[in-house]
User: Fold these one by one.
Assistant:
Number 1:
Amino acid sequence: SSEVLEQERNKSNVNADSLSTFLFTKEGRDRKQRVLKTLQGEKVFDKSQNYFAGRIDRFETALARAKKLAQIHSRESWTQEERVVANELISEPGPYGLHESMFLITLRDQGTPEQHEKFLRPAEQYKYIGCYAQTELGHGSNVRGLETTATWNPDDKTFTIHSPTLTSSKWWIGSLGRTANHAVVMAQLIINGKGMGPHPFVVQIRDLQTHQPLENVYVGDIGPKFGYNTMDNGYLLFNKVKVPHISMLAKFSGVDPKTNQYVKPASASLVFGTLTWVRSTIVLQSGGVLARGVTIATRYCAVRHQFQDRDAPEWHKGENQVLNYTTVQIRLLPLLATTFALHFTGKGMMALYGANQKKMSQDVGKVGGAQRGAGPEETNAGSDLLADLHATSCGLKSLASFTAVEGLEVCRRACGGHGYSSFSGIGPWYADYLPTATWEGDNYMLTQQVARYLLKSARSVLKGNEPTNDTTAILSNFLQKQDTGAAFDVLGNDSDVVAAFAWRSAFLTFAALKHRDEQKRSWNSLLVDFYRLSRAHSQYMVVKNFYETLQSASTDLDVETTGIMHKLFRLYALHTLEQEASEFYTSSAVTVRQIELARISTVMKLLEEIRPHAVKLVDSWEFPDWQLDSSLGRYDGKVYEDMFYRASELNPLNKVTVDPYPDSPTLFKQNDAGAMKAKL
Amino acid sequence: SSEVLEQERNKSNVNADSLSTFLFTKEGRDRKQRVLKTLQGEKVFDKSQNYFAGRIDRFETALARAKKLAQIHSRESWTQEERVVANELISEPGPYGLHESMFLITLRDQGTPEQHEKFLRPAEQYKYIGCYAQTELGHGSNVRGLETTATWNPDDKTFTIHSPTLTSSKWWIGSLGRTANHAVVMAQLIINGKGMGPHPFVVQIRDLQTHQPLENVYVGDIGPKFGYNTMDNGYLLFNKVKVPHISMLAKFSGVDPKTNQYVKPASASLVFGTLTWVRSTIVLQSGGVLARGVTIATRYCAVRHQFQDRDAPEWHKGENQVLNYTTVQIRLLPLLATTFALHFTGKGMMALYGANQKKMSQDVGKVGGAQRGAGPEETNAGSDLLADLHATSCGLKSLASFTAVEGLEVCRRACGGHGYSSFSGIGPWYADYLPTATWEGDNYMLTQQVARYLLKSARSVLKGNEPTNDTTAILSNFLQKQDTGAAFDVLGNDSDVVAAFAWRSAFLTFAALKHRDEQKRSWNSLLVDFYRLSRAHSQYMVVKNFYETLQSASTDLDVETTGIMHKLFRLYALHTLEQEASEFYTSSAVTVRQIELARISTVMKLLEEIRPHAVKLVDSWEFPDWQLDSSLGRYDGKVYEDMFYRASELNPLNKVTVDPYPDSPTLFKQNDAGAMKAKL
Ligand SMILES: Cc1cc2nc3c(=O)[nH]c(=O)nc-3n(C[C@H](O)[C@H](O)[C@H](O)COP(=O)(O)OP(=O)(O)OC[C@H]3O[C@@H](n4cnc5c(N)ncnc54)[C@H](O)[C@@H]3O)c2cc1C
Ligand SMILES: Cc1cc2nc3c(=O)[nH]c(=O)nc-3n(C[C@H](O)[C@H](O)[C@H](O)COP(=O)(O)OP(=O)(O)OC[C@H]3O[C@@H](n4cnc5c(N)ncnc54)[C@H](O)[C@@H]3O)c2cc1C
């Protein structure tokens, strides 16, 4: 089996090397190799027992790894990029996860210089180990509904942190269950009996020496999950715990200890900036997340042979690679195209984010305070400047993470029975990634914010305002041409494909506007339409980003590779168009005939043309075997050897001898499974 | 929170009790209560540590449970039905799983009376504990490609069982890894150097006393999986192991020891009958499988409150039940309708199967032998009698198991963050059910058999043959009317909805036939179309079964309940129609306007009408809390109390105290997690 992949590689003239550089830059690729070498040199990062160990052992190993990583980081003076790469290569959430991200970021972004001194410094040195405790048992998405209170005591200038109900228990908090000794706690600030909304407080929760919970603090791990079991997500309750004035993070708002008055936030846009940044990161990563599954499934389906082709000539006795069956291709190759589409879109988002941050920092002080209404659709961006970017990041986060989640399961299933083994490497990866569809804004709810922004833009265009950005431009273009109608040559012309996606998005926007503004339909009754609208608009942005990236790629890539990338663009766009057919022709962006042709002929043709390059294309993602940790996805194609090795040599259950008879009370005659446990 | 569900129940006049009886019969409901009581009386079935334990502990508990079940079974003289119910209530695969199903069934159906005496009797008494070893590392779906050989030795009248390659290792075999001492091994029969195809052999693999593998037998567990970890799926290799003549199961074929000649199979249809039966069972169960997720999510989304409705009046301060949001309804309520649709379809299938079996046993001997070609689409039913049932079972197995798999994940996600906790009960259930999409015929590949049957039927209709069954009837109806065109009142008339589904299926059949027979396109290039065709035809059958069941339901159910069931029928049918819109209007079964109306108005209206009855409707599935083992799906709605209890009281990780500092080599300062382990 092991030669198959080499043959595949020889048959294709895609230049995987230059494509890798195009995707990740030379510097990024070198960084990855360097970090990989460091990690592989440390025994604690050995992955061979990962799939076998139970939760407690896995958590213990994850803690050992987290410690080692922190040591290496400071020993080697790693940059932030190097640390990110290390996490990606290890591919497992760890007990310092929330300390190193949200805890530090919140202290930095929302703390005053004095608070930086008091909290951020010791946190950077891992003296304080923290978490970000916002969600409660009863409230997650609705942050305004949080029940934990922080009551200002004018007498002794302290806050009392309290959990008045069972549902006010903090819940799901990463790094809290066993590891953290501090928490940023989001609590309802109460001054003089008046609620001022949720604010962040830094609270010590465990003793720095004994690591036991402090008095009146109830804290623990919330138990096993679908994935993420190397992380100790925790719960936390306070029974009237007093904290000093400095505990309230005061960069944007605070309590004046002299007057006992609330000091109003200057601008919350920077906070929303963080959320936008987090979501943009999710978009950027989604391509790579999906690419892991696509790499594994593509390689395995090239190695896997099953059945003869029904129309194969008599003399052709051998079995067929399953990657040659069109029902396998239609599942994997559009996803392969999607990995690039998402990657380019993520890069586009990040660039936009950077540009906006720059512009914003020049404009600081000019923008007004954020208003938050009752519904999630009201969580506005706080500033018009950010509005477009905010909406874009919401829509794309939702689309990209769903696409990755659902695509990974398609990849797993394409591997047939072996896809179900943990050794496939897809299942465990999928299970850990899954919550991305729920956190940082539930994927269904986020779409309300996109719709809200599009409706607002459409109202502005209808009023006759000049387009100020791409969104208003496509809306006003649609308005001008809707009576003439569209005649896009989607099968022949790439820029027409992009225009057809824009047309559909604009059509749905004005349809939704009519329902809301003219027919006065309730917001709730329109949520399903808003979901579709957001999805349509986000698909337009992905298609546009893919298209524009290729426009500028020709200088970096050779002709063959560029040619295949164009085919991948067309496959992504036309396959999506065909999947969403009914919206496309309800909007008259395309004709029924065009859809039929796309489906029966163009897409099938593209599959055939891309097929020979599939292995080379996944190679360009350049995942080291160590990262994939997959029998099915090995670079050398030694699938069966590796499955067999793991099952027979590494599997602790085989150290158990059972007594199989129902009438015997003995279960295990012998159990040497413990001997397989990793030494830490 | 706990009163919410009672309020929901009081608001609806659906009669959950009579609906339960309609679904399961009085006898079935009583049986379930009886078995439940027995199981709850035995400590070994206590579920409280299920979600926490690692694989080895879970396997040990599963073994203890399997033993106890076998004891109870014989002690209480349980019927087969009672045993099935017990397994459903326990809801966990166990180490005797394949022994008690495929091993016993194969011995019974394919053994001679002499073999029954030698193998079946000791197997029934658990002296022999067996498994069904067909799949190999290199071959699963393509059974003809198996590499294990069984070579007939004319000299000493034995067979030599041998595994010539690594890929010939048996793999995935349930109950084999640690438990079985016997296996039914599918091996290529070789007589005088000539291969006769795969045949079943009974082979002892472990010593009956020591339980150690016999000489030249290499056997073990294949390692951890996405789910199914309470089962010891195993691998198995033979190094030239000799077995006596009686080992080859000889009911349908054999080797004559005197002449050393192969004795031809009389008829293989009964074997195919078993496959059809297994698939029909999968269809029947899929409704209940999905209903578990729908029950959990519906109850939780009724209990869960989050945000105010945006259009709620000022004085209405309370938060909204998330089940009131239309984006939650559009995910859950069509799935609720689907649970009933699948259940009725499964019952229909089983009835058809029973009728056919009866007819077949009368016709035995009249039908010819089975022919198996190279591709999966050729695995024909062996007899024309079975052909329709066979195709139906393939198409419906594929549709039903995909619908259940994908629906479960939709339910899990609808629960927001808490859906990700194991305590939701959905994730673990999903993970164990998932392989149903792959085994008993991979869901993608099965569709080729449906297409093949439909093409054959269409050819017969085109030749002018009279319709002999429903399939040919809808095809010939379409042929007669296709020029006139269809004008179905899908929004106003239920039987027209069924007719529209039939029309689309017939349209796609003739389109596929044209591609294959007129345009001579390759089989492989049509697989994607075949997949759609099979899906369309299967959806037609589901809609038809649902419709017909309700036609006859009016005598058993009161007017209100029947009324809601009709709405559920319409919701299932119109939501499906809208999801598959483009096929419906390409075939002219409906107009674009109808689809628009269905989507914007009819479906939304149905959601509103069904919403008040959702909790009562899931109640009618009558899952005991013990079976669901879910915090979110509790009958009494005490969601948060239960989550908190499990996390704080049952969670072994909370018995661990860590040392959190990177520079300290200590990981666990204290570890008392072992104390939580279940006593067996
Ligand atoms: C693995 C994991 C790690 C986490 N880590 C942290 C952490 O470190 N710190 C932290 O603070 N939190 C954390 N969380 C919590 C996470 O942020 C929340 O679970 C997430 O925001 C979802 O909120 P929820 O559970 O309240 O969903 P809910 O709002 O309860 O959603 C339930 C359902 O209702 C729907 N819904 C709710 N409101 C509306 C509406 N207005 N309109 C339409 N539909 C609606 C949703 O779509 C969903 O289907 C974590 C969660 C997970 C799963
Ligand atoms: C949990 C579990 C338990 C099991 N228990 C048992 C057991 O007890 N005994 C036993 O014998 N087996 C068992 N099996 C094996 C199971 O029956 C096979 O895994 C299953 O039949 C799929 O076969 P495969 O893995 O060879 O898939 P493959 O055929 O390798 O499929 C791989 C991919 O190729 C595609 N493909 C393959 N051929 C074609 C074609 N001709 N046309 C189009 N597409 C094609 C498939 O759709 C799939 O996407 C078990 C499997 C699992 C996961």
Number 2:
Amino acid sequence: MRPIIPVRALRVSARPVLSTSSRAFCKREFSSAINRAPSRLLRFAALAAGAGIAGGLTLAMQDQLSAEAAPRLPSSPDLSNVKLELIEDSSAPMRERMAAFVKLLQKEIVDALQKEEQDGSNAVYTDKNGKSVDAAEGRKPASFIVEAWKREQGGEGISCVIQDGVVFEKGGVNVSVVHGQLPPSAIRQMSADHGELIERVGYVTEGPNAQVDSLPFFATGISLVIHPKNPFAPTSHLNYRYFELGHPEKLRDGSPNPRYNPNEPAAWWFGGGSDLTPMYLYEEDAEHFHKTVKAAADSQDKAFYPAWKKWCDSYFWITHRDENRGVGGVFFDDVSLPSWSKARSYIPLQDGSKHSTSELVSSLQHDKDSLFSTMQALGHSYVPSYVPLVHKRKNEPYNEDNVEWQRLRRGRYAEFNLVYDRGTKFGLMTPGARMESILMSLPLHARWEYMEPSSGTGREHSVAAAGRREEAVRTTPADELKAREIIQSVLEKPREWA
Amino acid sequence: MRPIIPVRALRVSARPVLSTSSRAFCKREFSSAINRAPSRLLRFAALAAGAGIAGGLTLAMQDQLSAEAAPRLPSSPDLSNVKLELIEDSSAPMRERMAAFVKLLQKEIVDALQKEEQDGSNAVYTDKNGKSVDAAEGRKPASFIVEAWKREQGGEGISCVIQDGVVFEKGGVNVSVVHGQLPPSAIRQMSADHGELIERVGYVTEGPNAQVDSLPFFATGISLVIHPKNPFAPTSHLNYRYFELGHPEKLRDGSPNPRYNPNEPAAWWFGGGSDLTPMYLYEEDAEHFHKTVKAAADSQDKAFYPAWKKWCDSYFWITHRDENRGVGGVFFDDVSLPSWSKARSYIPLQDGSKHSTSELVSSLQHDKDSLFSTMQALGHSYVPSYVPLVHKRKNEPYNEDNVEWQRLRRGRYAEFNLVYDRGTKFGLMTPGARMESILMSLPLHARWEYMEPSSGTGREHSVAAAGRREEAVRTTPADELKAREIIQSVLEKPREWA
């Protein structure tokens, strides 16, 4: 093997706020510096210099003598520059109000999860030989890495990620506030996902009669996926977002656009939801999650939860497996006002997937403010809906069988996100997007077994499947197999929980 | 947790050949029977009965007293009913010749891999605490499970899968021979992938002027993915297939189709290739693989390898990661004759992806026979191109760092297959397809790390990335980091190997 040190160009499109200089960071120089450095201290200094750490953080070099002293980023988002008062100010633009709200919610959630991680876990892990050990392997709780970034094309965000903790195996809570121009290809994708909301905008964007080259957009949202370490603690996902499409200032031929109005979007909508993915079913946990979310939705409009619970079961369906990703929650998209839509219902819900037949009809009078209120009520329900479940399950003793099943279920989670999830697909197709922020939802560990006997072709009607089942019965305790079967049956046939 | 035993309907679309009766196998009865059975013997008997094992295999019940005695399927495909003489018979239809060839090749490959597994591994595994153990953990070599199946809609196949072996972590070698009617949605997908080959067929299949409702098709092929256990042994993939589109007997309005001819397809083509995915780069391994495949291709036409190597690098590109799935090999599709295509080149190659600019131009006179010859030469080159690499690397000692990197690379493999691979996507969209045969390509274990410092955002220009790199330098040996960097650089910039 020849020692080849590659020159690798920096492919950063989301520029970190804390970084300052030397954007042409060259891997060759970085690697050579490391290899030349005689001591760990110097090796770190080379790394720090190579990475351009200078202005944002002051490096106390003497601290580097301790192996613990890696450069530390804050473990909680900083709200000192966020105008939280905008959230309540109904005269302010919704863009700014929603952006302030998602940052507030991010901090609320990250702090609650960090506290749960800090609190630790005393779970005992038993391996195949029956040997029991501390599941945390003597490690200390992990901290969220909080990183602010700017998008060159316009916008900013904060990524908060925790990895390899004692309570959380992997999790990310991201917010972003971005704006720019949507090219026809992205509009096409958006039309496929959002139906008539795009039609309503009323511009021809492709073909010989195209009136405009692109449409201005604005988007802000919060997105999270949390994968706990303990197989009995459920995974959860949340996303709340606000989207605007604007009128272009000029038409394609250069003439002024008569419809141009910077203060009035051509279309706007809210979308989002939160949902739960347990590896093992505790009915009381699924009920707690759903009831908490439902109470928040009901506080705004009793018509919301039934429609959005149904939509959630439909959206997270893994068609090729004929099963759901989890036990659901709420999901909705394109939530706007009747004046923005041709639909009959008061708050129109268009679902592109053929699974959903839900249509939300409410007798209440909503306005943009009351819809934003709904986002807030639902967003704030996340911590009380989910964190108590982690708290309750994180100390459960578990064994190798439980971990295998957990990883297998996480393989299905990865399948859903890579094959179906709108946000992930949109991100993967967006040049210049920060891939690992998009793929942060993927688990640390996943497993795919051929002919798995509780959830795969091992259940089928064949000699080989019978062999796999016989093997499972021989090597796996009966209560474990039964527990797998119970959650599997719920995934295949969604239930009501609240 | 309430003990809920679900009734689960059988969702078998690929009916196993060996099974016979009781297709309405009911999970509730099966589970209850297990739970009532007082002994392992009876529990197995319940399983066997539930699975409807009767005619195909004779169950010697006394054998079940030993826990080892699961029903055994053959570990090598049976060729006794395959007319191998057809392969050489140029007067026989290509459908039958190719079907016989892929079955022959499947046996050749499965037997070679099974021999390698049987031969075992004496690799030593060292964990994070420096403790070294037998990597096989005292387990015995695994056997391929060979299972023949029939497709209700028309066709048959043989799946050979090995899992959790001492040499192979997971691998499958599948052949299928299927036929039926392609609905307009599948024709649309095929048009996207195969460009003018479909156009050439010349039927309007959609819209108010549609002439036909569907098109008859025939497809036969072999498809394999092998994931060895040792992180220094590379993963490999192979696929060779033959496809025909036919003329429908009747047009949509019920009138006879003047173009109907059961002996002359409307279009036919070969496609396939084989490629290598090492986790660590041994240049001599990549060279051996490429040289062996190139020699086989050169034996037919020296124009093949250069064009198909390039196409391979383009096809297996993971766009969102800006890196290749592996170090390549050969890949081609739509290989037909000029009379079947409008393209200028002798053997037209149309690549739908925007990456490829390759166009194969040969001065040799090919016919359908010589193209089939090429499939055979390439197919037979797989065992000598790949198995010696496994043999050479399977005993290498390895440690926890190596396994982590292997699983991380396998996460990327899963990303490619779920997001981009034509065959997988086509399969996931096909109702009634056997999902776990399609997803057999997924690894047993995969890993996704946020900010991984050798291949992910941990290389970026930020304080957090610098922290991740510092952590990697502190916790991972320098030679391991360098080895990761070497393979990463090759994945990002494909090289010539032969």
